[in-house]
Amino acid sequence: MILSNTEEVPGQSISAFYGVVSGSTVRTKHVGRDLMASLKNIFGGELKGYTELLHEAREEAISRMVQQAESLGANAVVNIRFSTSSVAQGAAELFAYGTAVKVGA
Amino acid sequence: MEEMDPGLINLFLAGVMLLLAFGIGSWIESRHFKSIRRREEELKRLPAVTLERLPTPDGWDHDHSGLVHGHVVVSVDHFKRFVASLRQLFGGRIQAYESLMDRGRREAVLRLKEEAAKQGYHAVVNLRLESSRLASARRNGKGTAGIEVFAFGTGIKMRRLGA
Amino acid sequence: MRYEAKLPDDSVNVSAGSPLGEAVWLLAGVAGLVLALTFAVALAIEALVPFVPPSAEVRLFGALGEHLAEELDAGEGADARTARVQGVLDRLAARWTDSPYPGFHARIVEEPAPNAFAFPGGAIVVTSGLLDRVENENELAFVLAHELGHFAGRDHLRGIGRGIAVGSVLALLGIGAEQADGLVGALGTLSSRGFDRRQESDADAFGLGLLVAEYGHAAGVREVFERVLVAGADGGSGDEDEVGSDVETEDEDDSDEHHDVSKPDDASLSGYWSTHPPSTERTRRLEARIAESGWSAEGETTDWD
């Protein structure tokens, strides 16, 4: 699966398009991580626990989007956008969406 | 007279509330998903893409375009909110909110497509989705009262050449 | 470039699984977590309390206890009654020869439910309802001696400590569990009940010792459980059942006073929900102790009122 946030896949022409595919997941951190982060917050710097969590979640959002594209028979997703929003206090939604297309023959 | 512990009574009432919310909430949700699937099938012919432009098919010409949008505010039931708040102790995926976001997003896109169809557009390009949390159900700012999902894009209308 | 009108798989964005099953697992997890945490903190406090010298306790809480006592509504003609209760209390305290406390102060609060409380710093508060119900001095003396037993066990300090323990566990978990507060609170209280019940038994045993030392026999003990503390037993107003249960709920939060001696026979509920062991069990234990020590369960009682 080719993923891109440009209008087209460079060097290849789009032969068909399917519409929007999306992937999302809502994640929360556990209390222990919250505690560590609030300690870390005093001094600033990277909150490793949260970095990891959001990374994992974003990967999952992408993989769910890819699953949708595969279910359509597409081989690329172009013009991908990401958005992160807070669903509830301490719970974040990671969302990825793009246009599923078929490139090449 | 049997003396009931007020703690037990409260626990019992809370349990009844949760089960009631679960039953009714699940019914409303499954009805909503059914309606979403039906309308998605109906509007399948109208493409909505994140691309900025779509090539004009042979024999057609660009007629005009305009902004279209759709939005919805949805919320989860008391039971799912309860499960979600427990989940927040242990971390991980919150299924309850995943289905909430899925519902909201698909509904917003459907409303956008419905508006586009009403205005005679043939496709929607440069589709964008925004979501935000509305006022909280509890005063302490936790919990979720409602999620707004907003979908917007540009509808394009084509006309047959020589028509 | 053609358009393929197809719908994608719409199941991928919602994790699989039943919410009901998830709720059950999560609840079990929360219950385990809260029980384990409060138990651990309560154990730590149990271990620390003996290291707090009574002199420090009086210095810290003496003023607080006095203040609380002054705030209480003592009702009419309280001064004379207070003096009489104080007299009984002083005689009992004198029997506690190795008491580390400089002294104890009796206070009366206008309240129909029969009850008594031990405050940090040496104040003992009895309700007017208790005084109305006792038929002789020995019954009152046993209740006061029981409260002295709480001072001997430093239970009022444990009460405060556990209040803090439960509170901090709740605050910790409360970060995410806004909906679960009620439930988590109930669990926290539940986990500290086991400690309370042991303390009550210890205070009973201590109080019995003082009572026998003062009067030479244990008359009045059985009556305390069979008549004085039983809600509505003397034909009192019907709403006393409710008052009794209010007292129960209150001590979940008011960790600074504590240790009401009263808890009516509450066999309709599972025993774990009551702070105090069921009265029948307490009476049985005390009677066994009386027999064991060769004391007399009956004897001349001193009049009251």
Written overview of the protein:
The complex is a heterotrimer of chains A (105), B (163) and C (305). Chain A is α+β, with helices and mostly antiparallel strands and 105 residues long. Chain A has a single domain, classed as Hypothetical protein apc22750. Chain B (Translation Initiation Factor IF3). Chain A has helices spanning 31-43, 48-72; strands at 2-3, 14-28, 76-88, 91-103. The model of chain A has no long low-confidence stretch (mean pLDDT 89). Chain B has a three-stranded antiparallel β-sheet with strand order 1-4-3. Chain B has a single domain, classed as Translation Initiation Factor IF3, CATH 3.30.110.70. With 163 residues, chain B is α+β, with helices and mostly antiparallel strands. In chain C, 59% of the residues lie in helices and 5% in strands. Chain C contains ten helices and four strands, in the order βαααβββααααααα. Chain C has a three-stranded mixed β-sheet, with helices on both faces. Chain A binds chain C through residues 13-19, 21-25, 28, 31, 34-35, 64, 67-69, 71-73, 89-90, 100, 102, and chain C through 1-6, 8-9, 12-13, 15, 172-173, 175-176, 178.
